[in-house]
Give the backbone structure.
Amino acid sequence: MQSIRFISRGRTESQRGFVLVIALVLAILYFMLMALVMIDSSRAQAEAQRYRARVVSAALAENAAELACVQMVTTPSGMAQLEDSQGTMMGTYRRLGSDTSTQARFEVNGEAQTKGLLNQKATVFLEGHFDGNQIHIDFARHSQ
């Protein structure tokens, strides 16, 4: 049986080079994968911010329309304007035609713009009519 002293090291030099090359290739591939993950996560974050801005602006526009209509049965027109940490909103309400008619028509407009990194605008437009003290919405349009 041979002792460890007599093992030739000639074969291990090429194996060491091969292992070193494989380690370098794996390290490069790992760092490339991490770079791709970081690029994808920044893209996903930007998409999430855009989606949040759209949702907030739509909610603010609907709130503006609701605030303008607080006294819609008893008053012929109304306006609301408010600014908070999310953004600004403005709503208008007006009654069309005769104020005393039981079938009077109305229009409601709500507009909003978000604050922050992404400014997003949204509008809400409603048309409807009164049937006595009941309110009926005939047409609604939401846009961004």
